[in-house]
Specification:
Blueprint lengths: L1 H13 L12 H6 L2 H16 L5 H12 L4 H22 L5 H13 L3 H10 L5 H12 L4 H11 L5 H16 L4 H16 L8
């Protein structure tokens, strides 16, 4: 199974062409991309669809590149990279993960979160991970080191509700805006959040 998932990821990253009968071309791509770029992007999207990955975000990535007038090679590379990230997120989070979870997981991986930590997060929080993953990515974007942000969200995962995780993230961002060191802000706020959720004292997993 591990090898088969590696093969899927490699195929997506390489943009191997799936049979054209798999899906009709997206009219949005036909309007925005030149024929060669569209064919390359379609190949990645078709491969992702065959693999059972969400494809709307791939279309959006291509359209974003077109809107920014990126050169064709960069558009294709960006779509391939996202497809590979979605495949890695599914391997880490499990085949039953929702499209929203996979997209949030791909963003977390791009931010520097390790696949093994996504797997651990799934184990600690069997219910929907979309909010937790988004909060994790936002914390890293705010300057919290990936390891510290992951540690905090993993600590909250078993007991905190989604709205409590969102409030924790907002509190950390407020503290950072006021001048607190990002890692320290996350550590202090997670201990406070754990007391509120009944999760106990924060300990590094």
């Amino acid at each position: 199974m591990r090898m088969s998932m590696w093969i899927v990821g490699a195929s997506l990253a390489a943009g191997l062409v799936a049979p054209r009968a798999v899906a009709a071309q997206d009219p949005r791509l036909e309007r925005r991309l030149d024929p060669d770029t569209r064919a390359a992007v379609d190949a990645v999207i078709d491969s992702a669809r065959v693999a059972g990955l969400p494809v709307e975000s791939l279309v959006d990535r291509a359209l974003e590149g077109a809107s920014k007038h990126a050169v064709p090679a960069r558009i294709v590379a960006a779509v391939r990279r996202l497809a590979a990230e979605l495949g890695s997120a599914r391997t880490a989070l499990g085949a039953a993960s929702s499209s929203a979870e996979l997209e949030a997981g791909a963003s977390a991986l791009r931010a520097g979160v390790r696949p093994a930590d996504l797997t651990l997060l799934r184990q600690r929080r069997p219910r929907s991970l979309t909010v937790a993953l988004a909060a994790l990515t936002d914390l890293v974007a705010s300057g919290v080191p990936a390891d510290s942000a992951t540690d905090a969200v993993l600590a909250l995962a078993p007991s905190a509700r989604d709205d409590q995780i969102v409030e924790f993230r907002r509190a950390v961002e407020r503290d950072i805006a006021l001048g607190a060191p990002p890692a320290a802000a996350a550590a202090i706020r997670v201990n406070s959040a754990l007391r509120e959720t009944g999760g106990g004292q924060h300990r590094k997993p």
